[in-house]
Amino acid sequence: MKMEMLRSKIAWCAGVLVVASVLMVPTGTVGIAFLLPDEQLMMRGLSTVKIQNGPGMVYFTPFITRTIKRKGVQLDERQYMVVTHELSGVEKSVAGPQLYFPAAHEVCDEPRPKIVLEQHQYAKLVDRGTGAVRVERGEKIIVPKPHERPADNAHPVHDAVNVDEETAVLVLSRQSGQQRLVTARGLFFPDWHEEILEVRKLIRVEPHEVAVVRDNDGAFHFHTGADTGDGHGTAFFLPPHHELVTMYWSSGTSPDDIRNNIVKNAKDVKYKVPMTKIDLRSQYAFFEYRVRTSDNVELVLEGTIFWQVVDVPRMIDRTSDPKGDVWYHARSALIQAVSAVTLEEFMASFNSMASRAATTDGPFYEQRGVRLHDLEIVRYECEDGRTADVLHEIIQETTNRINSLQKQRSENEVERERLQAQIELERERKELIEARTANEKLQASSQGESEGTRLAQNSFAFLDQLSEQVPDNETRLALLRFFSEQRTLTEQTEHLSQGSASLFLTPQDMNLKLQMPTAGTQAL
Questions:
Q1: 273, 248 in Cβ contact below 8 A?
Q2: Which one, 238, 318, 414, 448, has the greatest CB density within 10 A?
Q3: CATH number belonging to the domain at 247-383, selected among 3.90.226.10, 3.50.50.60, 3.90.550.10, 3.30.479.30
Q4: CATH topology of domain 114-159
Q5: What is the pLDDT confidence band of residue 8, given thresholds at 50, 70 and 90?
Q6: Using an 8 Å Cβ cutoff, are 57 and 66 in contact?
Q7: What are the pLDDT digits (tens) for 408-429?
Q8: Which of 180, 303, 181 is nearest to 236 (CA)?
Q9: Distance separating alpha carbons of residues 100 and 83, to the nearest angstrom
Q10: Are 331 and 287 in contact (CB under 8 A)?
């Protein structure tokens, strides 16, 4: 608002002066220019150059003076520019914030941003005139000198590297041309002659892994996680002039799928994947081989290869792709094994045949530092359609036979269980009969003992009562025997009369005598 009021007053005064000048000076002899506060007038005469900064009114002689009105350069607090004197060629840096009016013969570049550094940042500046390099650390705001430019125009500000137990810095000295690995913990700012080549992370090797490092002379160094013996593996920083050996192994899964943790279990090793750490555990690979039997039947075999790296130095020396060597050599061994048998022999013993093929040619795998544990065939089929139909019929018949045998075996097991249950039941019945017999014997024995005791007491009482009247013992015993026989006959008659028993009399009981007729006589 104040600026607008000032401009209005200046314009009003300028109008008054114009009117006065027109009245006092003949027309066409004097030129007049009015300048605002952010404007300047450059007047080029026949031999001189003059500058007049605003605000104000400027008189000049027309026809012999060429005038150029231009704005002052507005710089804020984060900008600077380089000003060059056209006559002397001297350059200077002008920093904001300010409104800068160039002097006569001065040319201004476009405003540039100052270099703002935070506490963990640095900038490397190169003087194009002397070649000197200086490094500025934060936190500060830097106004470069006229001839200075950032060493990296695309990225003038760099972050210092935080060196910790997981991070190290590989640095190249431009003075000596040597590399060094910085592992001292803290923020690392390179010196003016140093260049950060790489920020290296700690390489961890698990107990079941081996990392191979090659030095500048081409020698291999092996870092084995099992050497520590504590079950935690090992870790190291890659030294200068060393590189981690990367092998490319055959795989059925593409590198992109491996990075995305996708396993397609392809049965053909048609990709090469990078391998920086060698796994010493048992590994597997799927395969699909086409083989031909001795009776000229082409088969497609699918299965799994189980293998393992056992000697890393020997493997590095002999092959760059141990998995591919195992895959292709196992195919060769299996083709040879199948070509020596007929289809019928193959169907009867294909698993044992695959096992034998895995054990053949052991020196080939030993020379490459690997071991082939097993070859397993999980599926096979005939390549020819008609042969496949016949094979399916054979398999179906075999399946039906196996099902029938299984069914009969099940029925036999059911019958066996039924018989076993009956045997167990009869055994329990036997035990029941034996228990009942024992109980009856015990009961009869008890009853007999009781009856005997009672009979003895009665007999004793009977004989005692007759001792005075019948002193003869034999007579008393005869009387006792007579009364006993009579009591027994009475009980038998009572039982016959009350029950359904049948009476059978022997000739002795009836006192009967039969006379059988002899030859020539007739019984009367």
A1: yes
A2: 238
A3: 3.30.479.30
A4: SH3 type barrels. (2.30.30)
A5: low
A6: no
A7: 888 888 988 889 999 989 888 8
A8: 181
A9: 10
A10: yes
